[in-house]
Amino acid sequence: MAAALVEARVASDAGEIPVGALVVDAQGSVIATGRNSRVLEKDPTAHAEVNAIREAARVLNDRVLDGCTLVVTLEPCVMCAGVILAARIPRVVFGAWDEKAGAAGSVYDLLRDGRLPHAVPEVVSGVNAEDCQALLQEFFAARR
Fold first, then answer.
1. Of 38, 83, 84, 102, which one's alpha carbon is 20 to 30 angstroms from that of 113?
2. 124 pLDDT higher than 90
3. Is 16 a known active-site residue?
4. What Cα–Cα distance (Å) separates residue 12 from each residue in 41, 57, 109, 135?
């Protein structure tokens, strides 16, 4: 989570909502990183998770990320949860809960919805949640 927080801080410094993500392979090596870049890229899909997953797919030369873990500072939204499921990522670790748009247990629980045709990933929540939440709160407080 420390490396994901570094990515989130870089996003914040660029004026983006401070969310960072990384993909770790089955051996525990970071194979991809990502951070929010929606403003910079003028792309509504450029969330940290999507950016990290895209990079991991390129690194592995595969659309399926078997054995990988996604680590992200904020609970994934519905769009990101869909991408996680499409990439068949078996484990998701996140820091802060997103009480407005979260899709991993707060507002929705898309990742663990057994009605979907995808395998249900393991979800680990609240990892270093205080630091992840504090970074978000500082970012939004500075803009009010």
1. 38
2. yes
3. no
4. 15, 25, 27, 9
